[in-house]
Design a protein that fits this description.
Layout lengths: L2 H14 L10 E7 L4 E5 L12 H11 L5 E8 L9 H10 E10 L5 E5 H4 L8
Bound molecules: tetrahydrodeoxyuridine.
């Protein structure tokens, strides 16, 4: 299996555990770290809507807690007919731990995959102060 197939399997599994009673939109994210370990996360919503967290945030928290802090590739999945693309805040979250050329794989329920670098998804991202 290539990286995308393995990440997709993990992201689908995470999406199946998502807590999304409000949007009914279950998302899974899988991260391949530079150590070769894969971490995953799902969205966790809240009745106070802005408190909910994205799947990417969960996967990155798992990566940090697992002792890794460098992203090689990220895959986001939802059972949707449209490719799922990380929200603006999650692009910033991914950029914190990824080189500009790290790939973000956006997928959907039809099996389509579109891969773009985080640098292209977040041009001129906030990096230094
Ligand atoms: N969501 C994610 O988990 N990741 C994304 O990249 C986009 C959106 C979640 C947030 C919310 O729980 C649901 O999808 C609907 O917006």
């Amino acid at each position: 299996m290539n990286n995308i197939s393995v990440l997709l399997k993990e992201a689908k599994s995470a999406a199946s555990r998502a807590y999304a009673p409000y949007s009914k939109f279950k998302v899974g994210c899988a991260v391949l770290s530079s150590s070769g370990k894969i971490y995953s996360g799902c969205n966790v919503e809240n009745i106070s809507y802005p408190v909910g967290t994205c799947a990417e945030a969960g996967a990155l928290a798992a990566m940090i807690n697992g002792g890794d802090n460098k992203i090689k590739e990220v895959l986001v999945y939802a059972e949707s007919k449209h490719l799922i693309s990380p929200c603006g805040a999650c692009r910033q979250r991914i950029a914190e731990f990824a080189e500009e050329d790290a790939l973000v794989h956006m997928t959907d329920a039809t099996g389509e995959v579109k891969s773009m670098s985080i640098g292209d998804l977040l041009p001129m991202g906030f990096k230094e102060f």
